[in-house]
Amino acid sequence: MSTSFTRVLALAELPVNGKKPLSVAGKPILLCNVNGQLHAISNVCSHNDKPLERGRLGNGWIACPTHGARFDLATGKPLCLPATQPIKTYELRVVEDWIEVLV
Fold first, then answer.
1. Which of 14, 71, 81, 87 is least crowded, fewest Cβ atoms below 10 Å from its Cβ?
2. What 3-state DSSP class applies to 6?
3. For residue range 53-90, what is the model confidence (pLDDT) as tens digits?
4. What is the pTM of this model?
5. φ and ψ at residue 12, rounded to 5 degrees
6. What pLDDT band is residue 3 in, cutting at 50, 70 and 90?
7. How far apart are alpha carbons 96 and 79 in whole angstroms?
8. What residue spans define the domains of the chain?
9. CA distance linking residue 32 with residue 99, whole number of Å
10. What is the CATH number of domain 5-102?
């Protein structure tokens, strides 16, 4: 299990209300910037295993583009059906204008 952060993206490359899909240590991760609040989540919907990167961002949530399931960006918890299982969230930090993720 990793115990260190991995530098993944320059902060300037993730605009406000933007998303950026990445692979970190072989894991599909989606970085989200909602009104300046950064989140790192799994880029896979727990309901149908489809990518979330084309999903709509809201105030603290992302909606799966396939069936509309919404997930809380901070906790990964499903906010509505059809999803019933959470998605993974990852700790992140900003160091010297770089986003780093703990995976």
1. 81
2. strand
3. 999 999 999 999 999 999 999 999 999 999 999 999 99
4. 0.95
5. -65, -20
6. confident
7. 34
8. 5-102
9. 11
10. 2.102.10.10
